[in-house]
DNA sequence: TAGTTGCGCAACCAGATAATTGCGCTTATA
DNA sequence: TATAAGCGCAATTATCTGGTTGCGCAACTA
């Protein structure tokens, strides 16, 4: 219960990832979201709670309904963590580029 | 036990993320990795097994030692999932850009 | 006002996780 | 050859997780 919430742990669950995708299009209520999955509204509510705790989602009250909307900013944290790795695969790609360039040069010199 | 391995679930664990970062720099053995954490070699081995199962890491045998190296390619799956969201925050940034441009224009027209 | 709808919260449960401990196997070293 | 080092695997355990059910409360509606 008093588990520290972590954004990576939040997106580990497939249902929560799907919720984020749906909400990205348009803010939705728990009931509306639940219709997209094979689970109860309460289960969706729990997922929303987790997402809200790590600020990936924000509730917006409207009468007795609650529209949850995406907080895109927090998603950047994942992107930030990924950054150094992205750098690595970009470098590898450049290395491959060099190899190809060398091969081409050799062929031209034939 | 025969749980389907998922890359998002794999990076949900902080220790596993740390392992990926360490290995990104240089291939390492389970023992060497364990020294960086407050856990046993066996625990690290289990994490490596999870990472290997979703092809984030690849074992390379060398005598009685096993060097685990990063398989950078799989990391792209995370990047791919993130792509549409990145698009969203880029759009918001552009919208902000538009707002700033409009404000500037209005100021110039004064 | 009475009944319905949309929610969140608490209790409970089965299955998954991470970590420890104890092996046994293989490879290096004295 | 005997001993030590590096591993992976299996069994065990405490904890976490996702799901369901049953409330109770606030807000619409007939």
From TrEMBL, chains A, B:
Record GO terms (molecular function): DNA-binding transcription factor activity
Segment forming the signal sequence: none
Domain HTH arsR-type: from-to ranges: 1-90
Gene3D superfamilies: Winged helix-like DNA-binding domain superfamily/Winged helix DNA-binding domain
Entries under InterPro entries matching the protein: ArsR-like_HTH, HTH_ArsR_DNA-bd_dom, WH-like_DNA-bd_sf, WH_DNA-bd_sf
Superkingdom assignment: Bacteria
NCBIfam families: HTH_metalloreg (NF033788)
Entry protein name: ArsR family transcriptional regulator
Species this chain originates from: Larkinella punicea
Lineage, top ranks: Bacteria, Pseudomonadati, Bacteroidota, Cytophagia, Cytophagales
């Amino acid at each position: 219960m008093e588990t520290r919430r972590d954004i990576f742990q939040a997106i580990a669950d497939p249902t929560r990832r799907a919720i984020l995708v749906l909400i990205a299009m348009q803010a939705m209520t728990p009931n509306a979201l639940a219709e997209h999955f094979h689970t109860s509204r309460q289960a969706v509510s729990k997922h929303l709670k987790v997402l809200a705790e790590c600020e990936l989602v924000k509730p917006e009250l409207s009468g007795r309904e609650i529209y949850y909307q995406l907080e895109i900013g927090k998603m950047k944290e994942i992107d930030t963590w990924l950054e150094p790795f992205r750098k690595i695969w970009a470098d590898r790609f450049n290395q491959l580029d060099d190899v190809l360039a060398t091969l081409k040069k050799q062929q031209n010199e034939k």
